[in-house]
Amino acid sequence: MATSTTSPVSAMAETVPAPRDGRLIGAVSARFAGTAAILAGALSLITGVLQIVFPQDENPEIDPRTRIILLMFTVSLWALAVLFLGLARYGRSSWGAFVGAAGTVLLTTGTVTSAINGIDLAFFPIVAMAANALWLVGAIGLTVTLARARRVSLWLVLPLPFIQLTLVFFSQMGGGVLSGAFLIALGAVLLAGRIQSRAAARLRRG
């Protein structure tokens, strides 16, 4: 008789349904979201260390090193969008994930143009203000819906709105190091299947 090699955790992870079955978030698996979190975390760690070691001056022109930082930050913002959509699987609603993802993606229009042109363009402040507002509102909404659903540990949920604070407002102080460490830990938990197994147990209890 053939025996199954699927672990109990993996089996439970496969049976956890998305709260909005058939929509975009259903296509973002826990493995995809976990990989995105680790990618965003690794890039945030690198940029955080670079900004600690090589503080930026007040010159509005963007030097080559800063362009590299902006490009890494851009990739991390896209990865955060994927993470938000993946985490929405375990909440009661998905609007916060979509709003937060829209904010991070919108912000990349400013980071990319700044990296290419070597200076922030005139529209950047307006785009940055709108993007950061969407990111913050979405992150808070995602945090609330995840906390209410109780399918994810609070220590993985409550820091979500503070990622923006460290990556944007405290970036010059190396805030990316803190966000990077958290995101790598969150990604590792997703890849290990722990969030999926917790969600499965929660669903069985009703």
Question: What are its keywords?
Answer:
globular; mainly alpha; 9 helices; 206 residues
Structure in words:
The chain is mainly α and 206 residues long. 71% of the residues lie in helices and 0% in strands. It has nine helices and no strands. Helix 2 runs antiparallel to helix 3 and helix 4 runs antiparallel to helix 5 (124-149). It is globular. The model is unreliable at 1-23 (pLDDT under 50).
Provide the gyration radius in Å: 18 Å
Distance between the termini: 35 Å
In the predicted model, the low-confidence regions spanning at least 5 consecutive residues are 1-23
Task: Please state the overall shape, judged from the principal axes of the Cα atoms.
Answer: globular
Briefly summarize what is shown.
Helices cover 71% and strands 0% of the residues.
